[in-house]
Design brief:
The complex is a heterodimer of chains A (about 325) and B (about 280). Chain A has about 325 residues and is of the alpha/beta class. Helix content of chain A is about 40%, strand content about 20%. Chain A has helices spanning about 10-20, 35-40, 40-45, 60-70, 80-85, 90-95, 125-130, 145-155, 205-215, 235-245, 260-270, 290-295, 300-310; strands at about 5, 25-30, 50-55, 75-80, 105-110, 135-140, 160-165, 170, 185-190, 195-200, 220-225, 230, 245-255, 275-280. In chain A, strands 3-2-4-5-7-6-12 form a seven-stranded mixed β-sheet, with helices on both faces. A five-stranded mixed β-sheet of chain A has the order 9-11-10-13-14, with helices on both faces. In chain A, β10, α9 and β11 form a beta-alpha-beta unit. The two termini of chain A are about 25 Å apart. The longest helix of chain B is centred in the first third of the chain and has 25 residues, at about 5-25. With about 280 residues, chain B is of the alpha/beta class. In chain B, a hairpin with a 2-residue loop joins β4 and β5 (about 185). Chain B has a single domain (about 5-280), classed as Rossmann fold (3-Layer(aba) Sandwich). Helices cover about 45% and strands about 10% of the residues of chain B. The chains are: A alpha/beta (about 325), B alpha/beta (about 280). The interface between A and B is medium-sized, with 29 and 36 residues.
């Protein structure tokens, strides 16, 4: 994949906001002293009068976003996932979720791929936390094209949305000319019968790579990209469960409460099949280069291939 | 303030207190103490200051109030019922299953501008509303009411910093300084004093009302607040928790306890007597 273009989804976020600003005059952006990192700095440069730095005060930022939304604005509250979903959780729940306000949360630097900053900043729990809030949409785009499309879809949607972006540059899988973001719909990237790999975020590229490699070894793996974790596309998951009988979930998030849990919850009721979850196990991360950390934590095509083979007793 | 207006406000305040008692008695729970301490303030704001229309509660140009100390919702509900946002009979259903009036304010209720009650959060939402007003060049004003115990929450000071930084002159925060919180006196639990100096240090214009149950003093304070430009205003009102019901006044035990039938009857008798006195 050496010749594939790479880009961090946080960058797509900053660019998308800037591109959408003219069409949506009510769109405003909040940040908590991380504009250079979350890439809302791109928006700030283009629309300084619509950008509000809240300082290092994420709880207040979420509350301010709630008040703006209650007064007809479309605020994008931006910070690292750790602080958006972690530190400000209760404000997101009570001031945004409970009144179902039209706040968009742009959470960057999610997961282990934060890298060198280490465990305090590697948020592997945000999908779980946000998923439990009634009425909250949770989106994890896999690449630049999907991230931009998700932001555009979020502006048009009425209600709270949590969007998860990454720090690390990841392969651009989708063709911007052809790609269409469908709210709450999974995307089948590879067809297959032996098992289904359900992936989200930056693990989608690894899942596709793994499936292609498995195919060369005579194993037919279906690959589904779940960009909207909530509401989950239950139809595509149940169909995969029925047709392939085995599901392997892959996410850069704790195996507790994230995509794997959502998929297991979905199939357990009406079509129980084995669901094996690849993700960050019940442990904290540590410092290191992002690419190396992903390998260390088994978030790689290689681990997907090995796990898939184990599931098929090969 | 002229005597006729004052008398009318006092009458309404007694009726609001009756509503607070009725609500918490029928709910068998709730927070009468703090509700009674903010009753006069809320009557004054909704009668004399705020441009709101019960027939058009969503008017984008309306003034807004965020009850950051959301547990004193019974007081706000009683005022909104007096204003005609919903029927007074709703007060008897407070906190019941399926009721319009939730234990803490909910944005779906007519007249309620923001869900609140988890302390420290309302002031941030009020900042957002005030910022939106400035951005859209609206002339509405945003009021938020906080408890003196509530300001122990760190988020309050994040919001205080934000409001001053963005020069939210269309925002007024009223701190209900009744001196008591669940575990006792605020000065003994974990003192937030000196409250005035703290807000001043955060860049706010500060006004102190010595007696929050005197409408002349309320009028004077809000008249001063209106003159302030370029910064938000904090009004610290010294109030009496449980004000208006003899056995509840300054008793911390009435923070979060409902009256029983006998106590309810006695309280209502006292309030009826206060009303009769005003009718003379």
């Amino acid at each position: 994949m050496a010749d594939v273009k790479k880009k961090a989804t946080r960058e797509s976020y900053g660019e998308a906001l800037t591109e959408l600003a003219e069409t949506y005059p009510n769109l405003v952006v909040l940040d908590a002293d991380l504009a250079a990192a979350t890439k809302t700095g791109i928006f700030k440069k283009a629309y300084p009068e619509r950008f509000f730095d809240c300082g290092i005060a994420e709880e207040n930022m979420m509350g301010v976003a709630a008040g703006l939304a209650a007064s007809g604005m479309i605020p994008f509250a931006s910070t690292f996932a750790m602080f958006a979903a972690g530190r400000a959780y209760e404000i997101v729940r009570n001031s945004i979720g409970y009144p179902h306000l039209n706040v968009k949360i742009g959470a960057t630097h999610a997961g282990i791929s934060v890298g060198e900053d280490g465990a305090t900043h590697q948020c592997n729990e945000d999908i779980a936390l946000m998923r439990t809030i009634p009425g909250m949409t949770v989106i994890v785009p896999c690449d630049d094209v999907e991230a931009k499309a998700a932001v555009a879809a979020a502006v048009q949607y009425q209600g709270p949305v949590y969007m998860r972006f990454g720090r690390l540059a990841v392969p651009v899988l989708n063709d911007p000319a052809e790609y269409k973001f469908q709210w709450g719909k999974g995307v089948t990237l590879r067809d297959g019968e032996d098992l289904t790999i359900v992936a989200t975020g930056l693990m989608v590229a690894e899942a596709v790579q793994a499936a292609d490699s498995l195919r060369e070894q005579g194993i037919s793996a279906r690959v589904i990209n779940i960009h909207t974790i909530k509401p989950l596309d239950e139809e595509i998951i149940l169909k995969a469960a029925q047709e392939t009988g085995k599901i392997l979930t892959v996410e850069e998030h704790s195996i507790i409460g994230g995509l794997g849990s959502a998929v297991a919850e979905c199939v357990s009721g009406s079509c129980p099949v084995p669901v094996v979850r690849i993700g960050v196990n019940d442990e904290f991360g540590y410092s290191g280069p992002a690419v190396d950390l992903l390998k260390e934590f088994g978030l790689s095509a290689e681990n997907i291939i090995n796990t898939a083979k184990k599931m098929l007793s090969i | 303030m002229d005597e006729t207006t004052k008398k009318q406000l006092r009458k309404m305040a007694v009726n609001v207190r009756k509503g607070i008692l009725t609500g918490t008695f029928h709910a068998k729970s709730g927070h009468p103490g703090g509700s009674l301490s903010v009753a006069d303030l809320l009557v004054y704001l909704y009668e004399c200051k705020m441009h709101v229309d019960p027939r058009n509660p969503e008017d984008p140009d309306r003034d807004r109030l965020v009850l950051s100390k959301g547990h004193t919702a019974p007081a706000l509900y009683a005022v909104l019922a007096e204003k005609g946002f919903f029927d007074k009979s709703e007060l008897e259903k407070l906190r019941h299953i399926g009721a319009m009036l939730q234990g803490h304010p909910c944005i779906q209720t007519p007249g309620i501008d923001m869900s609140s009650g988890s302390l420290g959060q309302g002031i941030s939402a009020a900042c957002g509303m005030a910022l939106a007003g400035k951005l859209n060049q609206k002339s509405y004003h945003v009021y938020t009411v906080l408890g003196d115990g509530e300001i122990q929450e760190g988020q309050v000071w994040e919001a205080a910093m934000f409001a001053a930084h963005y020069q939210l002159e269309n925002l007024t925060a009223i701190i209900d300084n009744n001196g008591l919180q669940i575990d006792g006196k605020i000065t003994e639990v974990c003192s937030p004093e000196p409250i005035d100096e703290k807000f001043r240090a955060f860049g706010w214009h500060v006004i102190v009302i010595e007696n929050a149950h005197d409408f002349d003093q309320l009028e004077q304070a809000f008249a001063e607040a209106e003159q302030i430009t370029g910064k938000p205003v904090a009004i610290i009102q010294k109030s009496i928790k449980g004000k208006g019901v003899s056995f509840m006044e300054n008793q911390v035990s009435w923070h979060g306890a409902a009256p029983n039938a006998q106590q309810y009857e006695q309280a209502m008798q006292e309030l009826e007597a206060a009303l009769a006195e005003l009718e003379d």
